[in-house]
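Slide 14.
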Amino acid sequence: MFRRYAVFYTPPPGPLADFGAAWLGWDSATGTAVEHPPVQGVDVAQITRTPRKYGFHGTLKAPFGLAPGKSPDHLAEATAAFAATGKPVRIDSLSLSAKHGFVALRPQEETAPLRMLAADIVRTLDPFRAPLTEAYIARRRATGLTARQDTQMLDWGYPYIFEDFHFHLTLTGALDEMSTVLKALHPLVAPFLSQPLIIDAITLMGQDAAGMFHQIHRYALTG
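Slide 15: predicted structure.
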């Protein structure tokens, strides 16, 4: 059994997934470490150390412990049932962004259908989430939450949901200086910026004892 679970968007096998796995150094689909690309003037291993354990992804329901009385099989069944009713979402184009102190691929424009999809996942699967610990609450509050975010954390287990949800594919941890990283990353991600990204599946993830996340199953959105 995994320590925690989550629901992410993960790209299907192909160039984007291969890039993300190599850049972060972890392939969550195969559960294996991947060699970083050589980038002059950038310590890729260092700047990706924090996001590496999650693999290349966009969060839809943040990691959570399994509630007492709930089983991994039941969670998988509920995720599959949701995917059977959920509809794919199109992101017209991505941008390489340095918002909020870290680098990520973000939609050029926010899309209401994607926000609604994430909100529905949060609500539908929340019965499987274990209660928050006091340590988790204190750690989140130390980052400076708004009143709304604090309430969302207490009610739903995570502060950055609903109106505060902003989809992104994380590429680095927190950085003080990002211009060099952005310059190095741009030619690597340029092929993905001008084409749409179709969120056509959701992936149930599990975190192992070493802290690394693995793809349990990728469920197509077929609603």
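Speaker note: The mean pLDDT is 96.
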